[in-house]
Amino acid sequence: MSTDPRPVVLLGAGGHARVLLEALRAGGAVVHGYIAPSEAGSRLGDVPWLGDDEALAALASGFDAVNGVGSAGSAGRRAAAHAAAARAGLRFRTVVHPSAVIDPTAVLGEGAQVLAGAVVGVLARIGEGAIINTAAVVDHDGVVGAHTHVATGAVLAGDVSVGEASHVGLGARVRQGVTIGAGCVVGAGAVVLEDVEDGATVVGVPARPLSHGRSS
């Protein structure tokens, strides 16, 4: 159960926000409402809409933020939502689903999200706002940069480092000791055996560069 009495405000109302809503409730957190451009398309059921970004400042004194904006291959929108809430003075709640397994020596940054069935191993470090999604694995001594998304079922073997604002796709596998740079995309199902340069997109088995110079 959650030991933090402050209620939570979700940023966003799509699929990732819905997953976070269930994780928060499973941990005993109270979700006060959500921030989004409008109520249209919300997937949060009866959770009330609180307004757009202009409503953030009024919430800073009494609520924590949880970033429910997914990355969908680019961390840009997600990082922008985080920045807007931070400028308004909100602090970010770190979310850990009760079924996740996190070694006591691991370190989670502010606003990190470790979802159902995920594993974070010995001495791993997860950056602020990063997502370790459902059933993903970050093994021993792994480093995941701020706002990076390790997608559902992806596995980072021991000593893997992933830079900021990258996306490791659904079911991808990364060999032990590999370094993936900042602003990268690893395609779904890829098997990464070699280091990946900043801004590169890699796909396939074994993974090969598709493009460079991606901006997030």
Show the helix and strand layout:
Blueprint: E1 8-11, H1 15-26, E2 31-35, E3 49-51, E4 64-67, H2 76-87, E5 91-92, E6 95-96, E7 101-102, E8 107-108, E9 113-114, E10 119-120, E11 125-126, E12 131-132, E13 137-138, E14 143-144, E15 149-150, E16 155-156, E17 161-162, E18 167-168, E19 173-174, E20 179-180, E21 185-186, E22 191-192, E23 201-203, E24 208-211
Parallel strand pairs: 1-2, 1-4, 2-3, 4-5, 6-9, 7-10, 8-11, 9-12, 10-13, 11-14, 12-15, 13-16, 14-17, 15-18, 16-19, 17-20, 18-21, 19-22, 21-23
Antiparallel strand pairs: 23-24
Using the coordinates shown, work out and report the CATH topology of the largest domain.
Answer: UDP N-Acetylglucosamine Acyltransferase, domain 1
Strand content: 25-35%
- Strand adjacency order, main sheet: 6-9-12-15-18-21-23-24
Order of helices and strands: EHEEEHEEEEEEEEEEEEEEEEEEEE
- State the CATH architecture of the largest domain: 3 Solenoid
CATH homologous superfamily title of the largest domain = Hexapeptide repeat proteins
Q: Which residue ranges are poorly predicted, with pLDDT under 50 across at least 5 consecutive positions?
A: 212-216
Classify the helix fraction into a percent range.
Answer: 10-25%
Distance, first to last CA? 35 Å
How many strand units? 24
Number of domains: 2
Helix and strand content put the structural class at alpha/beta
Task: Report the major sheet.
Answer: 8 strands, mixed
Number of helices: 2
- Radius of gyration equals 17 Å
Mean pLDDT, all residues: 92
Q: Output the CATH class name of the largest domain.
A: Mainly Beta
What spatial form do the alpha-carbon principal axes imply?
globular
